[in-house]
């Protein structure tokens, strides 16, 4: 069932993850961040996605604390950065993230990028954290099909999530099909293509038809494709607007129109060709 902001998908280990959450990429530490997290939670969001490299885990933790919501009712994600992908460094990075967030555990911990020759050691560390009960679910981010295949050759535990750049200009059909087949939940970062799609004519036409905003149409398209989504915003009216996507359904025809906007166009780095 996907009928409210608390609606969840069940990961391959039985853990429930909200379909929609708040992303905080590029939101700097400070009152604006704390307020965004607190506001989102107060308006019904239960999932918050951060990362070590965002350098804002402390503010996210502060917002969580100030929200007054029970920890077990929230779903908190962070990610290990590329500099920490050895086995020991990943274990240490996890503890550092927990300390900054002021939390006892994370609901989901991801390898941020598939750094060649390193992500398997990091994955062993994530498996250790998972087996010890220190994290509820583990996964990856920005992994292409060949990265996933390579990882799973040696992995004891299959990733539960693959978080990738995903929007109507980058529909990732191959990755999506593979994840579905393997029982890996796909999750979208940059679902609104950093705002670049908000004046798209096709999307504007569809939005008018449903009496919704373009952002709401895109987020609904994510959900109907079975993709978890984490739009970023710090403005209260946007945080609320982004969450109001559970009271309508796109027709198959409109889903296809949106699919057809694909140009394999990335706004972020290419997972097969990055140097950081």
Describe this structure in words.
The chain has 276 residues and is of the alpha/beta class. It has a single domain (8-259), classed as TIM Barrel (Alpha-Beta Barrel), CATH 3.20.20.100. It has ten helices and ten strands. It has an eight-stranded parallel beta sheet with strand order 3-4-5-6-7-8-9-10. Strand 3, helix 1 and strand 4 form a beta-alpha-beta unit. It is globular and about 55 Å long. The model has no long low-confidence stretch (mean pLDDT 97).
CATH architecture: Alpha-Beta Barrel
Query: Do you know the CATH topology?
Result: TIM Barrel
Question: Beta-strand percentage?
Answer: 5-15%
The CATH superfamily title = NADP-dependent oxidoreductase domain
Strand order of the largest sheet: 3-4-5-6-7-8-9-10
Q: From N to C, what is the helix and strand string?
A: EEEHEHEHEHEHEHEHHEHH
Number of domains: 1
- Helix coverage percent: 25-40%
N-to-C CA distance? 40 Å
Biggest sheet, in brief? 8 strands, parallel
Furnish the topology, listing elements before pairings:
Layout: E1 8-10, E2 16-18, E3 22-23, H1 31-42, E4 47-49, H2 57-67, E5 75-80, H3 87-101, E6 108-111, H4 119-131, E7 138-141, H5 145-154, E8 161-165, H6 173-182, E9 185-189, H7 201-210, H8 214-224, E10 228-229, H9 236-243, H10 252-259
Parallel strand pairs: 3-4, 4-5, 5-6, 6-7, 7-8, 8-9, 9-10
Antiparallel strand pairs: 1-2
Produce a short descriptive summary.
This protein is 39% helix and 13% strand.
């Amino acid at each position: 069932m996907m009928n409210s902001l608390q609606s969840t998908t069940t990961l391959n280990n039985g853990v429930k993850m909200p379909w929609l959450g708040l992303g905080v990429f590029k939101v700097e530490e400070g009152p604006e961040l704390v307020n965004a997290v607190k506001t989102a939670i107060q308006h019904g969001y239960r999932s918050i996605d951060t990362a070590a490299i965002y350098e804002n885990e402390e503010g996210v933790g502060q917002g969580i604390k100030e929200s007054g919501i029970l920890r077990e009712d929230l779903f908190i994600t962070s990610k290990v950065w590329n500099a920490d992908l050895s086995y020991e460094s990943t274990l240490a990075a996890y503890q550092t993230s927990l300390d900054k967030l002021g939390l006892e555990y994370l609901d989901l911990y991801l390898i941020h990028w598939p750094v060649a020759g390193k992500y398997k050691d990091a994955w062993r560390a994530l498996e250790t954290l998972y087996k010890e009960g220190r994290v509820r679910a583990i996964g990856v981010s920005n992994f292409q099909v060949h990265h996933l295949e390579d990882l799973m050759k040696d992995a004891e535990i299959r990733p539960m999530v693959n978080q990738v750049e995903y929007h109507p200009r980058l529909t990732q059909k191959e990755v999506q099909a593979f994840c579905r087949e393997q029982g890996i939940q796909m999750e979208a970062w940059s679902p609104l293509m950093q705002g670049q799609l908000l004046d798209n004519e096709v999307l504007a036409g569809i939005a008018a038809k449903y009496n919704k905003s373009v952002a709401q149409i895109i987020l609904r398209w994510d959900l109907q494709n079975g993709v978890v989504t984490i739009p970023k915003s710090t403005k209260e009216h946007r945080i609320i607007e982004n969450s109001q996507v559970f009271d309508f359904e796109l027709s198959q025809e409109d889903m296809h129109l949106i699919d057809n906007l694909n140009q394999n166009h990335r706004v972020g780095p290419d997972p097969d060709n990055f140097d950081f």
